[in-house]
Amino acid sequence: QDQLVESGGGLVQPGGSLRLSCAASGFTLNYYAIAWFRQAPGKEREGVSCISGNDDSTYYADSVKGRFTISRDSAKNTVHLQMDSLEPEDTAVYSCATDLTRVCTDSYNSRSVKRYEYDYWGQGTQVTVSS
After folding, report:
1. CA–CA distances in Å: residue 53 to residues 8, 32, 73, 79
2. What are the residues whose beta carbons fall under 8 Å from the beta carbon of 53, sequence distance 6 or more?
3. How would you class 56 by CB atoms within 10 Å of its CB: exposed for 0-12, middle for 13-18, buried for 19 or more?
4. CB 32 within 8 A of CB 12
């Protein structure tokens, strides 16, 4: 069964770091655009970042630019999201997704992303930033 699985979430203090992973099973994600999204309680799902399938170009939401880094590990069929200088406002469930195209859409910088916009979603991983 084709699916995405996230890992790496947890509890971290403000200013700390976490690295999230998005692994694929049943298909290779190496040639596809992979995006990260997050949803905090009571808020809409918003875009965080995307890496393209063409040339691994990277894109970031304004709220995380300079603090988060997305990367691809082709050998492990995995995309990572390195999150540094975390803030309490980053607390959310983080999910990765793909629509099996090579191009990142502008949803990576959207404050309202709908589930139907992507074909495959992971189950999500909780990130909590708190002292």
Report:
1. 23, 4, 12, 11
2. 30, 31, 32, 33, 34, 101, 102, 103
3. middle
4. no
What pLDDT tens digit does each residue of the chain (131 aa) get?
A: 778 999 999 999 999 999 999 999 888 998 999 999 999 999 999 999 999 999 999 999 999 999 999 999 999 999 999 999 999 999 999 999 999 999 999 999 999 999 999 999 999 999 999 99
Beta strands in 52-124 (DSSP E): 58-60, 68-73, 78-83, 92-98, 120-121
* Identity of residue 99: D
With H, G, I as helix, E, B as strand and everything else as coil, classify residue 38.
strand
Stretch (H or E) spanning 103: none
- Alpha-carbon distance of 126 to 56, in angstroms, equals 26
Q: Provide CB contacts within 8 A for 65, sequence distance 6+.
A: none
